[in-house]
């Protein structure tokens, strides 16, 4: 094998080309990206980039330009991959250029899901997925601005916290009963909703959006499904992403809610691999899942790079993510089983606690709030499918390391 093309110059794509070189691959590597930027970190988009867009953190980019030159990574940025020509072993770019590649790794991620209503594309309606999105949004998050946030998943909740930090008057609209409820479950979703309320967010849970009122090309009011109107200077929409599966689908590769891959990160075509937000993979707990997390994008991309080189790979990890909101560091690993038994270690009132979600005695999910050291061991408990008694988990005098040791 002499050449590899990586489509998607994001975190996953950046980690993939890095791993190819670290593993000793000396052939041609082409990194193709629709954005003009070299690979960067997405977590700061909802925080530091909004707070001060003129001063992006030093570690925002994965590497400086010199690193890509030194490692002979051919960068094709600001250009779109239009099609996979599998018969010719190539990627066709906008304009007709062909990038030849013996193997192709798709790290195409996704695009922000848009609202399907009049006004959804107004100048002051923002969707957060890229650096340019964050820079545009920051211009509207000024002190005293009235900001409506539609959708309180991770992105919506983080932007709400950033907007409050910047002095905005924030109204959050979420059709479910609490923020991040799918990720945290009802008990801890309600806890997080109360934290937002206490910090000044006007929360409207259990409410949907009927319409947006537009004047001179800008949304001035959002109409809720109970008929109430919320005045606004800008709207932020966070209702998930649409995975970018079209390249694979149009080439005849099997897709569903993502590009379906096996535990070697290989698609239904033996020379095409996929990783990151776009990959629908085997779930640690059975079935299939598409993970939209920083850690999966980094880890799966590294595994996929090794698989591209023919090395033995068996990638299947539980979900792990974190979210920083206000003074809260929230981390979660695993999943919340149906009819989960919940055990708490620490005090929710102090915002320093760890929650365990069990099926029988098996620990299947762990949530930490401002207790990051617990997550270091907690992830290993999940990966080992450890069993523990609820009384042990609740007792702060019983170390989690001891419980891990008992699990073998």
UniProtKB/TrEMBL annotation:
GO terms for cellular component: cytoplasm. Keywords: FAD, Flavoprotein, Oxidoreductase. GO terms for molecular function: oxidoreductase activity, acting on NAD(P)H. Transmembrane segments: none annotated. This is Pyridine nucleotide-disulfide oxidoreductase. Its cofactor is FAD. It comes from Novosphingobium guangzhouense. InterPro entries: FAD-oxidoreductase/Apoptosis (IPR050446), FAD/NAD-bd_sf (IPR036188), FAD/NAD-binding_dom (IPR023753), FAD/NAD-linked_Rdtase_dimer_sf (IPR016156), Reductase_C (IPR028202). Residues 3-301 form the FAD/NAD(P)-binding domain.
């Amino acid at each position: 094998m002499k050449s590899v093309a990586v489509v998607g110059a994001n975190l996953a794509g950046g980690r993939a080309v890095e791993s190819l070189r670290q593993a000793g691959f000396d052939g041609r590597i082409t990194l193709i990206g629709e954005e003009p930027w070299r690979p960067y970190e997405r977590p700061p988009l909802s925080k530091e980039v909004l707070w001060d867009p003129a001063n992006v953190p030093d570690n925002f980019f994965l590497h400086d330009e010199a690193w890509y030159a030194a490692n002979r990574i051919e960068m094709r940025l600001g250009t779109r991959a239009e099609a996979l020509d599998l018969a010719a072993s190539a990627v066709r770019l906008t304009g007709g250029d062909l990038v030849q590649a013996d193997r192709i790794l798709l790290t195409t991620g996704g695009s922000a899901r848009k609202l399907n209503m009049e006004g959804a594309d107004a100048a002051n309606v923002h969707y957060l997925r890229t650096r340019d999105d964050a820079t545009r949004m920051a211009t509207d998050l000024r002190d005293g601005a009235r900001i409506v946030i539609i959708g309180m998943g991770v992105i919506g909740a983080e932007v709400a916290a950033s907007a409050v930090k910047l002095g905005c008057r924030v109204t959050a609209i979420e059709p479910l009963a609490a923020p991040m409820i799918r990720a945290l479950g009802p008990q801890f979703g309600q806890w997080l909703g109360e934290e937002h309320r206490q910090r000044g967010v006007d929360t409207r849970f259990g409410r949907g959006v009927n319409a947006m009122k537009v004047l001179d090309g800008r949304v001035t009011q959002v109409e809720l499904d109970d008929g109430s109107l919320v005045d606004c200077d800008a709207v932020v929409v966070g209702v998930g992403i649409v995975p970018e599966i079209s390249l694979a689908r149009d080439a005849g590769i099997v897709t569903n809610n993502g590009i379906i891959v096996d535990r070697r990160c290989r698609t239904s075509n033996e020379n095409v691999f996929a990783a990151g937000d776009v990959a629908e993979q085997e779930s640690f707990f059975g079935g299939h899942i598409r993970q939209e997390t920083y850690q999966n994008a980094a880890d799966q991309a590294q595994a996929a790079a090794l698989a591209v080189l023919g090395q033995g790979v068996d990638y299947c990890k539980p979900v792990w993510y974190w979210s920083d909101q206000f003074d809260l560091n929230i981390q979660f690993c695993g999943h919340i089983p149906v009819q989960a038994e919940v055990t708490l270690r620490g005090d929710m009132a102090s915002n320093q606690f760890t929650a365990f979600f069990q099926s029988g005695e098996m620990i299947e999910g762990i949530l930490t709030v401002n207790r990051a050291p617990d997550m270091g061991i907690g992830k290993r408990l999940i990966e080992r499918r450890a069993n523990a008694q609820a009384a042990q988990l609740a007792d702060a005098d019983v170390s989690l390391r001891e419980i891990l040791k008992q699990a073998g």
